[in-house]
Amino acid sequence: MVAKPKARAEPEQAPRRVGPARVGTGSVTSKHSRAPLSPLPATLEPELATLVSKPPAGDWLYEIKYDGYRMLARVDGPDVRILTRRGNDWTSRFPTLRAALMAAKLPVGWYDGEMVLLDGTGMPTFNGLQNAIESGANADIVFYLFDAPFLAGHDLRQVPVEERRRRLQEVLQETDRLRFSQEIEGKAADLLDSACRLGLEGVIGKRRGSPYVHRRSDDWIKLKCTQRQEFVIGGFTWPDDSRANGIGALLVGYVDEGRILQYAGKVGTGYTGKVSAALRQRLDAMSMPKRPFAGPTGHDTHATWVRPELVCEVVYSEWPEGGSLRHASFKGLREPDDKPAAEVAPERPAKARTRAVAPPGKLRITHGERVIDPSTGLTKLDLATYYAQVARWMLPYLAGRHAYVVRFPTGIEGERIFQQHPQGMAGLRGTDPALWRGHEPAIAFESAEDLVRAAQLDCIEIHTWNSTANAIKLPDRVIFDLDPGDGVTWARMRQAAELVRVMLQELGLASWLKTSGGKGLHIVVPLKPELEYPTVKSFSEAVATHLGQAVPQLFVAKSGGRNRMGRIFVDYLRNGQSQSTAEAYSARARPGMGVSMPITWDQLAEVRSGGHWTVSTAIAYLRSRKSDPWGGYWRNPQHLAPAMQRLRALI
DNA sequence: GGGAGAA
DNA sequence: TTCTCCCAACGCATC
DNA sequence: GATGCG
Ligand SMILES: [Mn+2]
Ligand SMILES: [Mn+2]
Predict the structure, then answer these.
(1) Which domains does chain A have, with CATH numbers?
(2) Is pTM, for the whole model, over 0.80?
(3) A425: which nucleotide lies closest, measuring CA to C1'?
(4) pLDDT digit string (tens) for A405-428?
């Protein structure tokens, strides 16, 4: 035990929260309250605190909010490991701390705490810790322990937090490097006040009686003194004077709900010459030509852009809605492997957000964290999750249909592989080889799993034929792919789509509309599979040609050339044998990752581009819809022959 | 990224 | 089980 | 033959 006999009024009388199945035991919870024996898990996700703006009611215990890195120590006899909150092993970075943990002879367990660097005044500093980690000189690092979800062979996760802390304090021999994060007593409001006056970052509150859970929980809260948050660095400006090295200001942002990098403001102070130079060196190596932020920063002309991978900590006085950060000051870098840039979302005092990201089944996605669209930070896992979730809408359009996939093994900026056959790739389902002898099996999608497996193979786009396996030579649809040439406004695209619709109506054909996910629109006419490809294609060519002749200022029927400048190519070539078009709900490999979204004709007025919906936004939109935008599509396969008659008459 | 083949 | 090596992934229209 | 496009 520590020398001081702390007069810690144990909260024995604290009202326990009523647990569902704990009613009938009758016995007073003793020191050795029920805690199952348990082997020590290999990994542990820490409980995270929710940011709140004022102390809530209820029975809380408060601790100082230390300004450092959340760390976990896994102690299993001589096997001592130090892990970040994401489970990265940082043991080798903290040899002195490892030694301290070894020397402490702690029981087998998982220990949860915050690692900080104390400056001369005993105040923890984040910048200092950053420097210490990078230089390996971490003599002054202190590990404040505050919890022990596993201890001495027991699983304490269901044990109330105050009891876990009591047991932790019991086994912990405090040293200079290893300390117990004391409870601070007093009224919450006063505690926060005095913490702020002392220059601390804030206080942490924990609800008495609460268990240890592996997620952000509202049983743990943080109250902050200053506005302080992590941002992604997306660029920087040069210093005013002629200092060759260093940084004028950092341009920082955050990832919004749509996973788009939004600009937040510039950070002009807080780094000294040395830090600034080192930062500059690091950023230079990450430079890229394109602005990573979705919108303009106001400093675009003097900015050097960088890949949005570095995360920094910033304090600021104010962040007005729709405006940029005021008095922003740099506090240090976050290590990128500890918190990927894609996860840096604005954290505002609020109720804990519910994380409802359905993982794509139990199929394995390797390198799920890999960014496939640098403009948004969208990852491979995002893509796989998108396809897992969109499957219920997409699969009907894929059923029985030959598909092509477009793969991007290194993301949308890298090599593009247009793949027409499974070619022995186990992740791609092939059509029955017996079905069509002499032909290589085609790619088919029959389930959500097929879609997710394809995503694992970096298949971003899924294109399909106009016919299905049961009548592979007879198209069951005809498509008019409207491709805007350079300089075509969206208003003219709308106009063009309406004109095509009207022309088809005059031919007696009902049509359905979708965004392409890229720049254009797709107009689809479902057909009875009764005519062969060349017939259907020549019909579509005649329609395109007619449009080009009737409204030459808007339409062209020939691809290529610069005759497309300012006009819309009516791409009828999609209607040939073995040709393909991006299928409904397919993602597209373009910056922003649009998806091809079926819409009603009425919606056309509201849609702003072919990429109006994206991998990030489509699922929420689809869930919010009550009716199928393509209601009636499957119930209206149409005869083409009468339309061909009418078209001949028209010409 | 993953198959085949080797260790 | 884990490692290394090696290797594939279109057809059509247009210029 | 190269290039652009799904
Ligand atoms: Mn198109
Ligand atoms: Mn096209």
Answers:
(1) 16-224 (3.30.470.30), 227-343 (2.40.50.140), 371-468 (no CATH), 477-650 (3.90.920.10)
(2) no
(3) B2
(4) 999 999 998 889 999 999 888 899
